[in-house]
Amino acid sequence: MPEAPVAHKIRILFLDVDGTLTDGVIGFAGERDFRNFYVRDGLSLEWARDLGVLPIVISGRSSPSVAARMAEHEFEHYLGIKDKVAVADQVRAREQVRWEECAMLGDDLPDLPLLKRVGWPIAVADAAPEIRAFVKTTTQARGGRGAAREVVEMILRHNGVWDRVLERYEAK
Amino acid sequence: MPEAPVAHKIRILFLDVDGTLTDGVIGFAGERDFRNFYVRDGLSLEWARDLGVLPIVISGRSSPSVAARMAEHEFEHYLGIKDKVAVADQVRAREQVRWEECAMLGDDLPDLPLLKRVGWPIAVADAAPEIRAFVKTTTQARGGRGAAREVVEMILRHNGVWDRVLERYEAK
Amino acid sequence: MPEAPVAHKIRILFLDVDGTLTDGVIGFAGERDFRNFYVRDGLSLEWARDLGVLPIVISGRSSPSVAARMAEHEFEHYLGIKDKVAVADQVRAREQVRWEECAMLGDDLPDLPLLKRVGWPIAVADAAPEIRAFVKTTTQARGGRGAAREVVEMILRHNGVWDRVLERYEAK
Amino acid sequence: MPEAPVAHKIRILFLDVDGTLTDGVIGFAGERDFRNFYVRDGLSLEWARDLGVLPIVISGRSSPSVAARMAEHEFEHYLGIKDKVAVADQVRAREQVRWEECAMLGDDLPDLPLLKRVGWPIAVADAAPEIRAFVKTTTQARGGRGAAREVVEMILRHNGVWDRVLERYEAK
Q1: C-alpha count within 13 angstroms, C-beta hemisphere, residue A22
Q2: A29 neighbourhood in chain C, CB within 8 Å
Q3: ipTM field
Q4: Scanning every residue of chain C, which has its alpha carbon at the shortest distance from the alpha carbon of A35?
């Protein structure tokens, strides 16, 4: 488990979608688009929300399939966003959270501007080389295959509340 | 083939869905959810049922795609279940089977309470570390890619009826 | 390229579907089933048909998605078949072809009875161990990822007509 | 980064679809066909277009799902094409571009005639052996998993404009 590069507790986790919460596949079945999400990523983001780390999902693309997945978990999400930093900054201000208290998980160049703002920038294992070169932490798991789960565990351990997840499932 | 940690024959096999009977992908095509199952897992669970091992599928989530797959095989299934132990206990009592005569195959923390009850708790190869640390048997195959098939063969061998599968297909 | 275990030219190639022409995934999107086929497998089966090797697809299951794929290529196919040997025998008799002139590609126990009849039984790389133990040839490629293509090339080379495929694409 | 086999700048990039912009899976969900594309491939082809390299997509097959993906990016595309060379030649003439100024990315035998015409023929990592044997450059990434992205970066570096991509995302 890598050491967190911040002293403060993390209060917001920004997440990209394609390649981060999915494996990067953008499918089409006829004219209907589809995405591959991962059960453990969604579950862990619910734990984060329950334990004081707000997941905020920001995607550069609009997609009915992404909206459906977000609705299922009732995650706060922003789709079709050109300027991810501006959206993140608004949420951050509303929540009265400083950039040092934010983490961000991404995989590709469009995520870089926001990764540069947050206190804890994190890349999925199969992120673009430019992203892995910049961040301080890279997950073992690939995007859409447990990267978000790994990040949630890192952050909840850093925040000192991971044991509360384990207790919920008789794992402690 | 690992040795079974129980002396009794196994009469019920409880199974999780996402990450166990599927590869963990929860897909959305527009608003329609989808899942990836595996042909050999479903076929082997039919052998189990024919040969005296009742497959009982219990998922924490509700999903039309999971319901459709279960209906195809006419497997007894419970979806959207918060307390898996309570549901399993009811089935067990109805079938007049003791916990020691039950096996369970799972992959993640929500499966742990039920894994702790059964005589033979089993994890898929790519289960969460907390699950692999607890169970006595971990399959070689991943969830949704033959883990259930491997478990059915283990149980039917343990129960002394595997040859009847081979005979059915001229394999013996 | 393995040597063919038969002296005669191959005139019919029997093929299983799930796990052979697909990767074994049986998906459901809502109540609609889906399958993953592979572009190079379908293309190569068209070459086989054009060059005197009739592809006959026989599946134990019925599925609208399999029927759609077969229709796209206009391959002769039989779905929902309990007794694959009986169906294959009828086609064989109609075509006036002896069992020694037939090949079969399969992946799992339900394919074994037919594999035992044909002159050239072949397993996909990720076939069940009982199948790999029986056949004389196992492909390098997995089911639904080029196994059929590999088999078509093997058979057309054996039949002495592979160069005609290469010539068609200026590859010779 | 391999050296380009041409002295001129590349002005057109021809691309195959199945196995090149997708992973080769041709899926069917009921009667509806589907394809797996990759987020980073589509994004990079937009960079190419913005920076003077015209992406032209030519497929031997017709498919509503491919048409939907192409429409999303507004890429010029030709589906159901028997003679890829003829179509490419028309586009080339219209754009007043010589064959030496064209690149082509493909994966299988039907791509070979066009690969033989262009100045810079390129194969995806998992291309058919006949294709890899012919081209001068083979990508590290597989088809539908970043091969097109890798090619776009190679071409834009060769053309001397890759830094403009990096600048757009604060990566330089």
Answers
A1: 24
A2: 29, 34
A3: 0.95
A4: C29
In the numeric block, the tokens 């960079």 are attached to D47
What's the gap in Å between the CA of A162 and the closest CA on chain D?
A: 33
* Chain D residues with beta carbon closer than 8 angstroms to that of C1: none
- Sort strands D102-106 and D12-15 into parallel, antiparallel or unpaired: parallel
A66/A81 Cα distance (integer angstroms)? 13
Kindly state the tokens that stand for B132. 């692999």
CB contact under 8 A, A34 and B29: yes
Task: Tell me if C115 sits within 8 A of C135, measured CB to CB.
Answer: yes
Q: What is the pTM of this model?
A: 0.96
What secondary structure letter does DSSP report for B10? P
pLDDT at A2: 67
Taking only the tens place, the pLDDT of each residue in D95-136 is 999 999 999 999 999 999 999 999 999 999 999 999 999 999
List the single residue in C36, C165, C168 with the smallest CB-CB distance to D25: C36
**pLDDT above 70: residue D45:** yes
Alpha-helical regions (H) of chain C: 39-50, 64-73, 84-94, 112-117, 129-134, 147-159, 162-168
Can you say how many angstroms the Cα of residue B9 is from the centroid of all Cα atoms in its chain?
16
User: In which element (H, E) is residue B44 found?
Assistant: helix B39-50
On average, the pLDDT of chain A sits at: 96
Region C72-87: mean pLDDT is 97
**How far does the CA of residue A133 sit from the closest CA of chain C (Å)?**
34
Interface of B with D (CB under 8 A): 29, 34
Instruction: Give me the domains of chain A, ranges plus CATH numbers.
Output: 12-168 (3.40.50.1000)
